[in-house]
Write a structure and sequence with these properties.
By secondary structure, the protein is of the alpha+beta class. The chain folds into two domains: 3-91, Phosphorylase Kinase, domain 1 (2-Layer Sandwich); 97-287, Aminoglycoside phosphotransferase (APH), C-terminal lobe (Aminoglycoside 3'-phosphotransferase, Chain: A, domain 2, Alpha-Beta Complex). It has helices at 3-13, 48-66, 110-123, 136-149, 156-171, 173-176, 220-235, 244-255, 259-269, 276-287, and strands at 22-25, 31-36, 40-45, 77-81, 84-91, 96-97, 181-183, 192-195, 200-204, 211-213. Strand 2 (31-36) and strand 3 (40-45) form a beta hairpin. The N and C termini lie far apart (46 Å). 31% of the residues are buried. Keywords: Transferase. InterPro entries: AGP_Transferase, Aminoglycoside_PTrfase, Kinase-like_dom_sf, Prot_kinase_dom, Tyr_kinase_AS. This is Aminoglycoside phosphotransferase. It comes from Sporolactobacillus terrae.
């Protein structure tokens, strides 16, 4: 969506809001973002599917707010035109996305505690209003898509490594699928805000992919970016009735390695070059599997 169209929409639907400054972010997969005066954020869903998911996202955030997480979360207001949901808006949250300004979270021990506390409270929500997306079929389709679209661009050993990781996971999926909770679904660097002044995580955004799923999945981005030892540190602040060792096993053998699969598909489908740095990272983490 063009910046001019977003600004025109805001002026039409919120005529009392004076727009002095504005910036946009349109590189996300699901939404276009307009930030007005560094005070108000407007998020425009790119597809009808994302519009439908936003409604469940709003319920999730209201329930999470009652848990009083230590980190900021968005407070949404839905904006309709007629019966069509066109956008959501919420007050600007302090901090910068870790995707735009990478920081080593390990430099401040408090960050592990903040992440552990946030995920523990999120996973305690009763989420009967949310769907389950990460089914056995979902992972089978992902593997088949990689075979058809990506494998021809990879080395044989990389293809075999992906096959091995999927085979091990799918063969044990029945046991894994018994553990369910409300999950963020996309706790990647782009959705974690960091305050440079305090050297700590300040907030979590974009709950569009919120769903019922395996709680271990939400630690995938942490494992991918910071490795097993830091992930264990975060898990030390996470309380659950499930065995932490069993969660870590699912994380270290599959969930923590799978972020690269979606990136590979996105690159091929959008005619972009494959990031071989990420492939190298995948192979390094794969070698850690016992």
């Amino acid at each position: 969506m063009r910046k001019e169209d977003m600004i025109r929409f805001v002026r039409r639907t919120m005529p009392k809001l004076t727009i002095d400054t504005s910036e946009i972010k349109t590189n996300g997969w699901d939404n276009d973002i307009l930030i007005v005066n560094k005070q108000q954020v407007f998020r425009f869903p790119k597809t009808d599917q994302i519009r439908d998911q936003i409604k469940g996202e709003c319920v999730l955030l209201r329930q999470l707010e009652q848990k009083k997480p230590a980190l900021q979360i968005p407070r949404y207001k839905l904006i309709y035109e007629g019966k069509t949901l066109r956008a959501i808006t919420y007050p600007f949250m302090s901090g910068e996305s870790l995707n735009e300004h990478p920081v080593d979270l390990r430099r401040n021990p408090e960050n592990a505690q903040l992440l552990g506390d946030f995920l523990m409270k999120l996973h305690q929500i009763a989420g009967g209003f949310l769907p389950t997306r990460h089914t056995f079929c979902y992972w089978q389709v992902l593997l088949e898509s990689l075979r058809k679209k990506v494998f021809s661009a990879l080395r044989d050993e990389e293809c075999q490594a992906i096959e091995d990781v999927f085979t091990r996971f799918l063969n044990r999926y029945t046991a894994f699928s018994k553990t369910k909770a409300v999950i963020h679904g996309d706790l990647s660097a782009s959705n974690i805000l960091f305050d440079q002044k305090t050297n700590r995580i300040s907030g979590i955004i974009d709950f569009t992919d919120g769903q019922i799923g395996d709680p271990a999945f939400d630690f995938a981005g942490i494992y991918w970016n910071y490795g097993p030892e830091y992930t264990k540190e975060v898990l030390s602040f996470y309380q659950t009735d499930e065995s932490i060792d069993e969660m870590f096993d699912r994380l270290s053998t599959f969930y923590g390695l799978q972020p690269v699969f979606h990136e590979l598909l996105y690159s091929v489908e959008n005619n972009e070059p494959i990031d071989h740095t990420q492939l190298k990272r995948f192979m390094e983490l794969k070698q850690m599997i016992s």
